[in-house]
Amino acid sequence: MKILKAAAPLGTLAPRGCVVALGFFDGVHRAHAAVLAAAREEALRSALPLLVFTFRAEDAPKVGTPHLSDDAQRAALFAAAGADMAVFSEFSALSHLTPEAFVDTVLVGALGTRVAVTGDGFRFGHRAAGDAACLGRLLAKHGAAAVALPPVLHGGEPISSTRVRQALERGDCAEATALLGRPYDLTLPVVRGDGRGVGLGFPTANLCPPAGRALPRFGVYVTRVGLPDGKAAFGVTDVGTRPTVAGSEVRLETHILDHTGELYGEPLTLEFLTRLRGEVKFSSLSELSERIRMDCEEVRIWLRQNGQS
Hints:
16 strands, Elongation Factor Tu (Ef-tu), domain 3, six-stranded antiparallel β-barrel, alpha/beta, 309 residues, 28% strand
């Protein structure tokens, strides 16, 4: 899949025309997957390439809202959905455009859109003045069409990125998984910590989440760990500030069960499966060590009960 990152689409990216999936796609949850699948069907039926048009993760339209996925993760999920190209545009470069100008200069002029596929709640243009019905009317003037999919429901309510974030804020991994269609995950490089884990008998891989990334509620989790060699293991992951050792920065510290070897600088993927407990400040390191031992045993029990061992 070809990936383009630009302040705005330049030139004609799809000379033959294309089917465009439109949206921010934060987290690429099940409702987003439905848009991508419908766009793929349109592309196959029309014998046209499928292009995903979105904005960079750091340009989330709602300022201050933590994002559920970075550009690399979204790109991988777009490719897995069958996209031929993904355009990650700079929001500020286009936010001033009226709905008419966005359709004329971006969708038709640069992308050659024949069919645009969105969710029913899609908004676009300056101050989100355009909706899905407006998109259809404007594209029709150019002989193109728009398809707006109805909401995808879970628990009787539409699936949204907001609901995923709310589930993470509660530490509800099962709900987040049901909304996303997969466990919530992060891929980050392993950084050097203070080495206390080794001293406690439970060495950890330490990850520093970037500012603006959504995290599960502070606490201890069962995680599936994607290792650099492509294999997977399971771990006990602490999300928080490490109050027992007077930590201040938010860290993800994972003790990987039955694993040895150096991981510094290597990327790890953590999938959050379930929450074991909240963050606790222990009175001593020996008490912390005993609690970690108990956590590891709880992870093994959970894995057996859920057919993961």
